[in-house]
Design a protein that fits this description.
The complex is a heterodimer of chains A (392) and B (457). Chain A has eleven helices and 13 strands. Chain A is of the alpha/beta class and 392 residues long. The longest helix of chain A is centred in the middle third of the chain and has 26 residues. In chain A, helix 1 runs parallel beside helix 10, helix 3 crosses helix 5 and helix 9 packs across helix 10. With 457 residues, chain B is an alpha/beta fold. Chain B has 14 helices and 18 strands. In chain B, the strands form five sheets. Chain B has a nine-stranded parallel sheet. Chain B has a three-stranded antiparallel sheet with strand order 4-3-16. Chain B is globular and about 80 Å long. Classes of the chains: A alpha/beta (392), B alpha/beta (457). At the A-B interface, helix 2, helix 3, helix 4, strand 6 and strand 8 of A face strand 4, helix 2, helix 3, strand 8 and strand 10 of B.
């Protein structure tokens, strides 16, 4: 069996809402650079492919629910792109994939921000493109109304239409971001003393995107990033985002609950890919929330009790030892997954267990790298540096 | 008794996308690789500068309908580079230009609050405003704003971000494990703001940062711009480089502070300044002339002339005389995305003046442009430059300078090694940072928690 890829999703004190109350948590440091540096350095020590960093344009909230008035959960977070940039000079190999929302923001700004992250990390940047369907986040911008709805409404026709629009906008957004990344040819900067020209303007391109939500002229103000096209990723849960991912992403995160479920989702994604033009197939990661250790189930139960509710997630919640998790990952991998994005239940405990217990176990089985290769984040996934769409 | 010596504030401006920056020099490095930003920032920190400054422009400049290719082109995202620089510096302030026209307050506020957290209190925002549809073509809102509304919108934008910064109390995060209270419910980001430009409400999601709010810079020079700065800014990034013009600007702007209840020290005047150093003054003058010829090639001279003449002058010889034809006095359409063309308020009068200078001194187009544009502010030996800078500050032409090297990234090294020690010896520039935050370096107090603290008259 081929080696698998492994990433972690970083969010505050961990994914369990009571994680910040653990004795080893650092809840007063969640907004400091040192806290984030320690997590990413830990992940890099475990030779992980990349970290993702969660973000939102509003307070933390459970899936599609309105923000709560509860005062016993972590509230407040930093801009994920800036966290990634702050960590980039402190690390050398690990990929950095911040979340950034497409719904109320400018593709021009995000394009140059991720391109710049690619420069400051020497080719390790990616982006998790996320929509916002939340009414409260729309009110933070005041430019459009998004009606409030809950997860239970998601199959109602008006809600499906809204979600369809949000993902269509997301696809346009990614298209603009990608065109802007290509809007400078790699050799546009010439510094030609004889003619006095710094750039060859024939190698700078207007992108002239016109769509339902925005028109963008270009070119970018930022030259083409080191990877050409930094890795675009998305978390997807049903048919509408599957189509978005097939059109727009290099790598997706899915949330199967067993191997057969994974195989089914992969089938749907491959079918969606067949309907669009792509250079290379999607890399498909499964997301898992993980509580690791011999006492993991008891630990989760204790956290649930502190929180006053059983923790639920879109992803499967795994409790068990690193060896048991390694078994599960290898079983699921056979369904056609490239790898896994693990969401640590608590930090630092479960993050450390991933790097210090799970990774050595997978290495013993010959299923995970024993050192980093040189090269960009794309290269880690066998993705070539893409040709520039504007080069004839 | 003589009054105590003022302390000088110094900053390092990353070389910009204009002809001040000499990219053709063998020592000139990359304008986009992180190593260049790192090098300049670390030089500035080694020299105990107040801050590093990065400008922004959101559309590539054009002239005669084509992308302008004679100057450096291309720049990074401001926030992303400043956040990365926070990792490789410890005390240096990190200042960037962010446009208030092509952004929304919620997003900009969370980016600056995040930068301030991630740098432990070193963030500064140069608030600029724009009204041109040319730049707006890159943005979803298309961005066109009537010129007379731009300061009104900018001011509301800025005040809205202050409401967001102030929406968290300083001590909101309790993180009491036993009681299970993470944040105190009273002031945890709730806000509501309704005016002609912004109609928003909800909950801001970045808790109070070390400086409370980023340090605010402004660069406006019109009457409106000066008033806006007096009302809202902590520092002005001005362009009045001579002693007399600097003193007039300084007196004017500081004179506006009283009506906002602000003391003189609460608004710093920091002009941009270029410099050329040499072993002797004569040596420096010679080098300055070489640099000016690097900055103004024949091709560049013609482009400058076109910006005033507002016509295609590509058939003219830069080593020949000025055109006999007059400038086209209509709306300036030849150069786009370039703020400096707005300085040409009376092109016919300026052209007449330039012709008189060229006739009197027998100057070609290129020599004339070298004469009338952008001569370096400080030229001389380290002693001369240190004394001149100190005199400007002590005689109230400024509170310090934002130095603009002409070579990336090593253009500040000589200044750091030779001029800074002389200023330190004279007791007018710090030898060590006194506090951790940019507000500490600039002598600015932390803002109060209430946005109403500074009433607008």
């Amino acid at each position: 069996m081929s080696a698998l890829h492994l990433a972690v999703a970083l969010d505050g004190a961990g994914w369990h809402p009571a994680a910040w109350r653990e004795p080893d948590a650092r809840p007063r440091e969640l907004l400091t650079a040192a806290y984030w540096a320690d997590q990413v350095v830990e992940a890099e020590r475990g030779l992980l492919d990349f970290v993702t960093i969660e973000d939102s344009l509003g307070p933390q909230a459970d899936r599609l629910a309105a923000p709560t008035e509860r005062t016993d959960r972590v509230l407040g977070r930093l801009d994920a792109v800036l966290v990634a940039a702050r960590i980039a000079p402190l690390t050398t190999h690990i990929g950095l994939i911040p979340t950034a929302t497409v719904t109320h923001t400018e593709p021009f700004h995000i394009s140059k921000a991720i391109a710049t992250l690619d420069y400051v990390s020497s080719g390790r940047a990616g982006w998790r493109a996320q929509i916002s369907g939340r009414a409260n986040e729309a009110a933070h911008f005041g430019r459009r109304d998004i009606p409030a709805f809950t997860l239970a409404d998601r199959d109602e026709p008006p809600v499906r239409a809204l979600i369809g629009d949000l993902f269509d906008e997301a696809a346009d957004y990614v298209e603009v971001v990608r065109r802007l990344w290509d809007s400078w040819e790699d050799d546009a900067e010439i510094r030609d003393a004889d003619t006095g020209r710094f750039v060859d303007r024939e190698k700078l391109h207007y992108i002239d995107f016109e769509g339902r939500w925005f028109n963008v002229r270009g070119p970018s103000i930022t030259p083409r990033p080191p990877q050409g096209q930094p890795l675009v990723t998305a978390l997807v849960h049903n048919d509408i985002p599957y189509r978005f991912a097939a059109r727009s992403a290099d790598l997706v995160y899915i949330t199967p609950h067993d191997a057969a479920d994974a195989a089914g989702i992969i089938g749907e994604l491959r079918a969606a890919e067949a309907g669009v033009r792509r250079d290379q197939p999607l890399h498909i990661f499964a997301d898992l929330v993980v509580f690791l250790g011999a006492d993991a189930a008891a630990r989760k139960a204790r956290l649930d009790e502190q929180d006053g509710a059983e923790y639920e997630s879109d992803a499967l919640i795994f409790t068990g030892t690193a060896t048991e998790l390694a078994d599960l990952l290898q079983e699921w991998q056979r369904a056609g997954l490239s790898g896994f994005r693990l969401r640590p239940g608590t930090i630092p405990h479960d993050l450390q267990a991933i790097g210090r217990e799970l990774v050595p176990e997978l290495q013993r089985r010959g299923a995970f790298r024993t050192s980093y290769d040189e090269g960009s984040l794309r290269e880690r996934f066998g993705l070539l540096r893409p040709a520039n769409r504007y080069v004839a | 008794m003589s009054k105590p010596l003022k302390k000088i504030h110094l900053a390092a401006h990353f070389p910009g996308v204009n002809n001040t920056t000499v990219w053709s020099d063998p020592a000139a490095g990359s304008h986009i690789e992180f190593s260049s930003f790192l090098r300049l920032a670390q030089t500035a920190e080694r020299a105990k500068f107040d801050f590093f400054f990065l400008a922004e422009g959101l559309r590539l400049r054009e002239q005669n309908g084509k992308i302008y290719d004679l100057d450096v082109v291309g720049r990074p995202d401001t926030f992303t580079v400043l956040a990365a620089l926070a990792a490789v510096t410890e005390r240096l302030g990190l200042a960037g230009t962010i446009n208030s026209t092509f952004n929304e307050p919620y997003e900009v506020a969370r980016q600056f609050a995040s930068l301030d957290h991630l740098s432990a209190g070193r963030a500064a925002w140069n608030v600029v405003t724009s009204w041109d549809a040319f730049t707006g073509e890159n943005f979803r809102r298309a961005g066109f704003l009537p010129r007379d509304q731009r300061y009104a919108r900018a001011e509301q934008f800025l005040r809205t971000t202050w409401e967001l910064f102030d929406s968290w109390s300083d001590d909101a995060i309790i993180a009491d494990r036993e009681k299970g209270v993470f944040a105190d419910g009273a002031r945890v980001g709730g806000f509501e703001h309704h005016d002609d430009f912004f109609d928003i409400s909800g909950q801001f999601n970045v808790p109070r940062s070390p400086q409370g709010r980023p340090v605010i810079f402004q660069a406006g020079d019109s009457n409106e711009g000066r008033e806006f700065a007096a009302a809202t800014a902590d520092a002005i990034f001005s362009r009045h480089g001579t002693l007399e013009a600097g003193q007039a600007f300084y007196t004017d702007v500081k004179g506006r502070l009283a009506r906002y209840g602000k003391a003189n020290e609460q608004l710093l005047i920091l002009p941009a300044a270029t410099f050329v150093l040499g072993d002797t003054d004569a040596d420096a003058a010679e080098k300055a002339d070489v640099v000016r010829h690097q900055q103004v090639s024949g091709q560049t001279a013609i482009k400058f002339l076109e910006q005033l003449w507002n016509r295609d002058l590509s058939s003219y010889d830069p080593d020949g005389p000025l055109p006999e034809v007059d400038p086209d006095v209509g709306e300036n359409t030849i150069a786009r995305g370039r703020a400096s063309v707005r300085m040409h308020t009376d092109p016919l009068a300026t052209a007449k003046q330039w012709r008189e200078i060229a006739d009197a001194k027998k100057l070609s187009i290129r020599e004339l442009i070298i004469e009338v544009t952008g001569r370096q502010n400080f030229i001389g030996s380290p002693v001369t430059v240190a004394e001149t800078i100190n005199r400007y500050v002590q005689e109230d032409a400024s509170d310090g300078f934002i130095l603009v090297p002409h070579i990336t990234p090593g253009g500040l090294d000589e200044f750091a090694d030779t001029v800074v020690p002389l200023l330190q010896e004279r007791g007018v520039f710090r030898s060590e940072y006194e506090g951790p935050t940019l507000r500490d370096h600039l002598g600015l107090a932390l803002p109060g928690e209430s946005t109403e603290a500074r009433a607008v008259s």
